[in-house]
Amino acid sequence: MSHLNLNEINELKDIMEDGFADLVEAFVADSEEKLAALHGAIAEGNATRIGELGHSLKGASSNICAAALADIYKKIEAAGRDENLDGVEDMLSQAETAFQEVKAELQAL
Amino acid sequence: MDTPAPASSEAPLKILIADDNQTDRMILSAIVKKMGHTVCTAEDGAIAVEQFKAEQPDIILLDVMMPNMNGQEAAVIIKQLAGEDMVPIIFLTSLQDASDLAACLDSGGDDFLTKPYNKVILQAKINAFSRMRRMNSTLTKQRDVIRANNEHLMHEQEVAKAVYDNVAHSGCLDSPNLKYMLSPFSVFNGDVLLAARKPSGSMHLLLGDFTGHGLPAAIGAMPLAEIFYGMTAKGFNMADIIREINMKLKNVLPVGIFCCACMVNLSFRKQEIEVWMGGLPDYYLYRSKTGELENVASSHLPLGVLSSSAFDASTQKFKLDLGDKFYMWSDGIIEARSPEGDLYGEPRLQSVFKQNKDPEQLFDEIVHDVNQFVGESGKDDDTTLLEVTMIDEASLGKAAIDLSSGAVNGPTDWRMAYALRGETLKTFNPLPVMLNILHDVPTLRSKSGELYTLMAELFSNALEHGVLGLSSELKKGPDGFARYYGERAKAMAEMTDGQVEFVFDHRPTDKGGSLMIRVIDSGKGFDYKSNINNEFKSEGYSGRGIPLIRNICESIEYKGDGNIVEVVIKWQSDHS
């Protein structure tokens, strides 16, 4: 099953035209950097930072039409905001798996 | 054409996109550029403020949650910097909570756009704000133009007001027998109130209420005041002045603008007022001894309506005792409105008179009652009130005739002859013309009243006793005056070739000047050599003339067959 909503992604390609590849590249670079930062924040137990990073990653993946991935980040954002970090490591590994699949799909387009 | 056509017909805008998320910036930039607008970007709130200063964008898309400075803080600063310029801020937010969205608008945002972005809605919002912005800038420009025009207009009005006040000045309204209230509705008063002493010592008053109020109403007061003051100072009578004013206003005022007016000649010697009234509500004559009120009604159309040939300058005359009062007002008094919209009306005014205990308080009581009635509702017309009291002329002081002065010394060495014949002698009053010439000698100007009286006496003697041959004996007895005037009218009608000539001879003296006036009439004269003693000493009505002349003149001398009289007036300069 695809991680991307194809109708939405076509519309996005329509908007971005030649800039679409740059958008994907920016998304991938931004996500990898912030996932690494999220690892650090979880290790430190910094709930505020976890919330901020979760919010930013959620927005980016939602922009790129990856709804399922955005949902996982939304849970991470909520965990950080509510300062309830139970199970947040599991969420992070789910997110990393999903991100790799989204990345592959995007790069295949 | 490489650049895409704008999605709307409007000129391209510069749009600032502030979002910490790079993919957000890229997608929003792509959408906005596709609409044909140009884009600048910022990664946080602080940079957004800097970009706003540097780029002066037209519309701002502002993310709420950003590092360094969040969107709401940036919005407050940007709105402050923008001042009067309308710079719409659209918040970008994934917030769903109503109170969070409301907080965005409270911080100065104009709208918000929720993530994920909908291209169609974003475009519609940008177009809507572009229209609003253009409208705002048009309104601001128009407001500035209106403000500038208004300032210009106010300045012009102030200058015009200064000129107006000089022309339509209040004359001798500060006389002790007058109390007045002028309460204009705007800078310019559509009501006009003028007072001036005549050379004879009487007082002319004029209350005028022009159609409307403000400048258009006030402008007509200028020629009116000019004529009123000019002709009064020169000794013209009321009928001549009111006729002249009517003709002038008829010529200069547009159709539909006229002047309801009342002109009064207050004669202290005769204890009488003469009233011409047109288009005004009833005025009151208050008898201070009995407390009775007499209505005085308008019997004419307003000034500026009728042509000279149709105009009627006839007047009403009333005898006044000392202390009697005449009240004049513009319709702003009767038509003053209470906060409930009721008119003040005549019954209320009359009850103020009825309840009065001390006539000296009447004026203040009327003003107080009207003000109390109007209350806080504010007025909607010019209101004017004048109280005229009959007093003894002595307590009023001498008439200070105000005429614009010419050269300091004026002509001092001159001679002039002025003769009136036939029909002109019957109908024309030569006194203002002659007085005007004498006024060229500055010091004689201050003797204006005396000169007027003197020349009036000399002229009527020359015409009535000289040319018409009437005997002052006729005036004696109870019916004397009536009989005399009957004879006078008859003789006047029959007269065809009469003449009265005035010769003025003015010479400078060491200390001032000497004016000789010789009056020669075409009559048979009289035996002044034997009559002179009787004539001068006689008491009562008919002999009044000569002692009066004696009082004023240095000398009086009859010559020829008695048809020539010569008087001399000497004056000393105030300047030496």
Give the SSE layout:
The complex is a heterodimer of chains A (109) and B (576).
Chain A: H1 6-16, H2 20-44, H3 47-63, H4 67-82, H5 88-108
Chain B: E1 14-18, H1 22-34, E2 38-42, H2 45-55, E3 59-63, H3 71-82, E4 89-93, H4 98-106, E5 111-114, H5 119-167, E6 178-183, E7 191-197, E8 203-210, H6 215-218, H7 221-233, H8 238-252, E9 259-267, E10 272-278, E11 283-287, E12 292-296, E13 316-319, E14 325-329, H9 331-334, H10 345-355, H11 362-374, E15 383-389, E16 414-421, H12 422-427, H13 431-438, H14 442-445, H15 448-467, H16 480-494, E17 499-508, E18 512-521, H17 528-537, H18 545-552, E19 555-559, E20 564-572
Parallel strand pairs in B: 1-2, 1-3, 3-4, 4-5
Antiparallel strand pairs in B: 6-15, 7-8, 8-9, 9-10, 10-13, 11-12, 11-14, 14-15, 16-17, 17-18, 18-20, 19-20
Helix pairs in contact in B: 2-3, 7-8, 15-18
Order of helices and strands of chain A: HHHHH
* H/I helix tally of chain B: 18
Number of strands of chain A: 0
Helix content of chain B: 25-40%
List low-pLDDT spans of chain B.
1-9, 402-408, 535-542
As an assembly, this protein is heterodimer
Decide which structural class fits the backbone of chain A: mainly alpha
Overall morphology of chain A = elongated
Number of strands of chain B: 20
Shape of chain B: elongated
Helix/strand-derived category of chain B reads: alpha+beta
Distance between the termini of chain B: 95 Å
- The percent of residues in helical segments of chain A reads over 70%
